[in-house]
Amino acid sequence: MSFAQILVEAFRSLSANRLRTALTMLGIIIGIASVVLMLSVGDSVRKFIDKELSALGSNMLIVRPGTPTKDGGVRRRAGEAPALTIEDAAALNTLPTLKGAVPMMQGFHQINYGTDNSNTTVLGVVPEVFALRNWTIDSGAGISESDVRSAARVAVIGSKIASQYFYKTDPIGKLIRVDNQPYTVVGVMAGEGSAFDVNDIGDVIMVPITRHPIRMPLPRTVHYFVAQAKDAASLKEAQLDMADVLRDRHRITPGKEDNFVITNLASFAQAGANIGFALSIGLGLIGAISLIVGGIGIMNIMLVSVSERVREIGIRMAIGAKPRHVLTQFLAEAVVMCVVGGAIGTLIAAGGAAAVTATGKFDMVLGVSHVVTAVLFSTAVGLFFGFYPARRASRLLPIECLRQD
Q: Domain ABC3 transporter permease C-terminal, which positions (predicted)?
């Protein structure tokens, strides 16, 4: 028999018991849908993390005051003064392994313009922060060196704040109040999106670091540094160099705890990848269990089918069919059930991914590799669980089969 004839015969045999065939395929459908969703979730989480990290900038390092804990966190002793200064950041800028390091201040403050007011993040920055963190000015100008030296009351506002407070008017030159103190708007940031220290760049106000509303307990101390390594290969070396410089400047002797913590944003990526992997494993186990259950169901139904069709097998062999022909026929029926079930499962997974993407909160995309994997999985299940019933059918003796009623 040709391949086409085998398929036609397989579909004919399966369509003779449509309800039984559909119920048998249900386990395969659920299993393949779970496997495809597993692959999609894993890839989507990784892409989401890559997208978020690219918004932060590549090869970024964060330095915060405090003592590192075993779980990767930071603790501060009661009454301990902040350990990072603007001069520390200047010292880090001399390292050959760094593109640059900038000091930052951060606080949540009330802002108002006219009768409108809200609370938002206010960052104290230096001019170099825009290039280092890939932030661009849409209109006006950024914070200048003279603004920092003179502690000028100027501000660069995010695009969402510009739209909310200065709808259809040019905000440049207007006064906006931060904690009831007037600041002149000199620029508007371009773009939106989250960062490690703000929820949305569009909702941020930036002022000179020397004019930030928060008054630190010690002069010229700051909340944290943001640094960028020359390249990915020198990231670890840059982290070690930074630690050496800060230990020297803070007079930390060997054996004493550091009063700062350096965080590599690549560790965030690894943590996110671990989460994606855990999700994939969880869904994969569900899919594997469903596939095994579905495969056992297929084996059971195929054994029933062999018992029901003993006389048919005997007639086929009596008129010239060889054992391998019978084996191929029954194996084809098992594979067809699995492949059709896999196709339906893939469509269900695609629908689920589209529904998640439609919420706008998370993008899930099914790639060609996911579909290929589904086809291979379903085919493998059909071959594995269909082989025993097919082999059993091929080993029946024609004379014994013809004696059956």
A: 285-396
Taken as a whole, the chain contains a residue count of 405
CA atoms within 13 A of residue 391's CA, in its CB half-sphere: 7
Query: Which residue type occupies 393?
Result: A
Q: Look-up: residue for tokens 């894993």?
A: 42
Do 288 and 94 form a contact (C-beta atoms < 8 A)?
no
Percentages helix, strand, coil for the chain (3-state, rounded to 5) are 55, 20, 25
Task: Please check whether residue 220 lies inside any domain of the structure.
Answer: yes
DSSP three-state, residue 217 = coil
Examine residue 59 and state whether it is found in any structural domain, yes or no: no
* Distance set, CA 365 to CA 82, 197, 340 (Å): 45, 29, 22
Q: How far apart are CA 2 and CA 9, in angstroms?
A: 11
Q: Is 136 within 8 Å of 189 (Cβ atoms)?
A: yes
| Of residues 88, 100, 61, 99, the one with CA closest to residue 245 | 88
**Residue whose token pair is 């671990």:** 274
Q: What does the block give as tokens for 285?
A: 């186990």
Residues 133 and 19 in one domain: no
For residue 12, the tally of other CB atoms under 10 A from its CB is 10
CA distance 99 to 132: 8
pTM of the model: 0.61
Tell me which of 234, 258, 282 is where a domain ends: 258
Q: What is the pLDDT along the chain (405 residues), one digit of tens a residue?
A: 566 777 777 777 777 778 888 888 888 888 888 888 877 877 777 777 666 666 555 678 889 887 765 555 555 544 455 578 899 999 999 999 898 899 999 999 999 888 888 899 999 999 999 988 888 899 999 999 999 999 999 999 999 999 888 887 889 999 999 998 999 999 999 888 777 778 788 889 999 999 999 888 788 889 999 998 887 777 888 889 999 999 999 888 888 888 888 888 766 666 666 776 777 777 667 767 777 888 888 888 888 888 877 777 777 777 777 888 788 888 888 888 888 888 888 889 888 888 888 887 777 877 777 778 777 878 888 888 888 888 888 887 777 767 665
Task: Verify that 227 and 186 share a domain, yes or no.
Answer: yes
User: Per the domain annotation, does 21 fall within a domain?
Assistant: yes
CA distances from 364 to 49, 219, 281, 343 (A): 13, 49, 17, 19
Residue 63 lies in a domain: no
Range of the domain at 181: 81-258
